[in-house]
UniProtKB/TrEMBL annotation:
<dbReference type="InterPro" id="IPR013201">
    <property type="entry name" value="Prot_inhib_I29"/>
</dbReference>
<keyword id="KW-0732">Signal</keyword>
<dbReference type="InterPro" id="IPR038765">
    <property type="entry name" value="Papain-like_cys_pep_sf"/>
</dbReference>
<dbReference type="Pfam" id="PF08246">
    <property type="entry name" value="Inhibitor_I29"/>
</dbReference>
<protein>
    <submittedName>
        <fullName>Peptidase C1A</fullName>
    </submittedName>
</protein>
<feature type="domain" description="Cathepsin propeptide inhibitor">
    <location>
        <begin position="50"/>
        <end position="106"/>
    </location>
</feature>
<feature type="signal peptide">
    <location>
        <begin position="1"/>
        <end position="27"/>
    </location>
</feature>
Length: 125
């Protein structure tokens, strides 16, 4: 008798998880800004691409210094993306909303345990 109830509970948990995943996907814009190899040929084209990317993702920087730093990171990421795309034929990489973050910044911000949460709730990591 307990087995049918357990099966229903597992099914319900799966359904809730699926719906949560769908809702998360619908709330996040998974689109990216494409580029062409000619965008890499001049600084003017890179700036135009960066400005297009900023507009697409609604990003506002606090200062010109921050924008300049983010542009340098954006260029580095774009070069890595382009080098990877030259080697692959089964998929293509583009510029998503993380294109102005370094690998280290992305890891620190989005991967691993959120220590702030643990400290705010008096939990041990």
């Amino acid at each position: 008798m307990a087995a049918p109830i357990l099966t229903k509970i597992v099914f319900l948990i799966c359904c809730v998880s699926f719906l949560a995943s769908v809702q998360l996907a619908l709330c996040h814009d998974f689109s990216f800004v494409g580029y062409s190899p000619e965008d890499l040929t001049s600084i003017d084209k890179l700036i135009e691409l960066f400005e297009s990317w900023i507009a697409k993702h609604g990003i506002v920087y606090e200062s010109l210094e921050e924008k300049s730093m983010r542009f340098e990171t954006f260029k580095d990421n774009l070069n890595q993306i382009d080098e990877t795309n030259k080697k692959l034929s089964n998929y293509w990489l583009g510029l998503n909303d993380f294109a102005d973050l370094s690998h280290e910044e992305f890891k620190n911000k989005y991967l691993g345990l959120a220590m702030k949460f643990c400290h705010d709730h008096n939990l041990k990591p």
